[in-house]
């Protein structure tokens, strides 16, 4: 449908068809010219939103979008040897191992036994990755969060609320996770 609309000069790019709602597909098929302005506006809004960093919301109060940070303005300094990152300790113990920054839980073989799982946040789909992990470090979380509960159940150290851990800790770096003190030290 997108290609046909481009061929007719109605859309600039065939991907603009993805801005349609499912309920609009039939009408678009018969009268695509009625959607030209709507799809352009939706795509423009989509790209505006795409450039924003969604805030982590805990209390169901969403701050105005005008206060959201722009992704392009977010600069993170990679941690170097000796850097100590602070978070919240949630599962006691100390473990040292190779940091494995995992952004998607679909590869359970991404971690080798003893590796330190560095994740943005976790939910039940991440459980297979906790099994071989020597410890877990998560960008967001609090007492009672998924990462803490699973780590305690498995008896591995866990530190959550380590802001930008997945961007600051280099994949493959040796790190020490202290679940008692809530720290992650890059070695």
Tell me what you see in this structure:
The chain has 187 residues and is of the alpha/beta class. Helices cover 24% and strands 19% of the residues. It contains six helices and eight strands; from the N terminus they run αααββββαβαβαββ. It has helices at residues 2-7, 25-30, 36-50, 127-130, 146-154, 165-168, and strands spanning 84-86, 88-91, 94-101, 116-119, 135-138, 158-160, 174-178, 183-186. Strands 1-8-7-3-4-5-6-2 form an eight-stranded mixed β-sheet. Helix 5 (146-154) links the parallel strand 5 and strand 6 (158-160). The radius of gyration is 22 Å and the shape is elongated. The model has no long low-confidence stretch (mean pLDDT 93).
Main attributes of the structure:
about 190 residues, about 20% strand, about 25% helix, 6 helices
Could you give the topology of this structure?
Elements: H1 2-7, H2 25-30, H3 36-50, E1 84-86, E2 88-91, E3 94-101, E4 116-119, H4 127-130, E5 135-138, H5 146-154, E6 158-160, H6 165-168, E7 174-178, E8 183-186
Parallel strand pairs: 3-4, 4-5, 5-6
Antiparallel strand pairs: 1-8, 2-6, 3-7, 7-8
Structural class: alpha/beta
Cα distance, first to last residue? 54 Å
Kindly report the average pLDDT value: 93
Residue ranges: pLDDT <50 for 5 or more in a row? none
Which sequence of strands runs across the widest sheet? 1-8-7-3-4-5-6-2
| Total helical elements | 6
Computed CA radius of gyration, to the nearest angstrom: 22 Å
The largest β sheet comes out as: 8 strands, mixed
Query: Tell me, what's the shape?
Result: elongated
Q: Total number of β-strand segments?
A: 8
